[in-house]
Design goal:
mainly beta, about 0% helix, globular
Length: about 220
């Protein structure tokens, strides 16, 4: 299948322009100044796909320079959900990673982390129903990720698939300030009704760990 493309994503997420063909719903966390995110993982519960269409549902990270988004994208264009990891869209230009089909009611685990030697970011997707695993590494070591996003991006379709649920979320950042870890992220445009449960923060040395039992984008506001 064609790889996901997000031609207007960077403009929107840097919030330099509100013009976009897509309709957006997303929650966003920021690290404090001087800190950066070093990992982002969780379980994505696959919703029903009502029809073939440009549904892009994803967790992702955006860097301080606003040059792109590193994301695990659930793509509904073929009429069957497909999920894969990648960097959108240039600076640098990188090939999209591998992926697999997945179906309503399944759970896919995503794990994105700065590699131990700091040379890049590694992504692993696991389809729990079958044990299928896809792993990729992306040359993004130069990027300082200061934003975590839970996003719904729709073009020519509506939010007709029900709630989008993330479970067992774990996010780590550098530093000692854990104040960003709460149940009140930025709700872009106040566009979503959402709920977040089980938020816990801890600090060990210069690493902040934030866990959440669930993050649910429930419906349009």
């Amino acid at each position: 299948m064609l790889l996901p493309t997000f031609t207007l994503l960077l403009t929107l997420l840097s919030l330099t322009s509100q013009a976009s063909a897509a309709t957006w719903y997303f929650l966003r966390y920021y690290t404090p100044s001087g800190s950066k995110f070093t990992s982002f993982s969780g379980d994505l519960v696959i919703p029903t796909l009502p029809q073939a269409g440009t549904y892009y549902l994803w967790p992702g990270l955006q860097p301080t320079d606003g040059s792109g988004v590193y994301q695990n994208v659930l793509d509904g264009r073929s009429g069957t959900w497909w999920i894969g990891s990648g960097w959108c869209c240039s600076n640098p230009s990188l090939p999209w990673g591998g992926g697999f089909n997945t179906y309503a009611g399944e759970t896919v685990t995503f794990n994105n982390a700065l590699t131990s030697d700091g040379s890049g970011w590694a992504s692993t997707l696991t389809r729990k129903a079958t044990g299928a695993v896809v792993s990729d590494t992306f040359a993004l070591a130069s990027k300082s990720f200061n934003q975590v996003l839970f996003a719904i991006e729709l073009t020519g379709v509506s939010w007709d698939f029900g709630p989008l649920e993330f479970k067992n979320v774990k996010i780590t950042s550098t530093g000692t300030d854990s104040s960003w870890c709460d149940d009140s992220p930025e709700n872009y445009g106040s566009a979503s009704v959402f709920s977040i449960s089980g938020v816990k923060a801890s600090v060990s040395g210069s690493v902040v760990t934030c866990t959440m039992t669930s993050v649910i984008l429930e419906k349009p506001a």
